[in-house]
Amino acid sequence: MILASASPRRKELLERAGFELTIVPADVDESRQPDEKPIDLVARLATLKAHACLKSFDSLTPGETLLGADTIVWLDDDVLGKPRDDADAMRMLHELSGKTHHVSTGVCLLMGGSHHVKERVFVETSHVTFRVLTDDEIRAYVATGEPLDKAGSYAIQGGAQSFVEQLDGDYDNVVGLPVTRVLCELESAQLS
Question: What is the pTM of this model?
Answer without folding.
Answer: 0.94
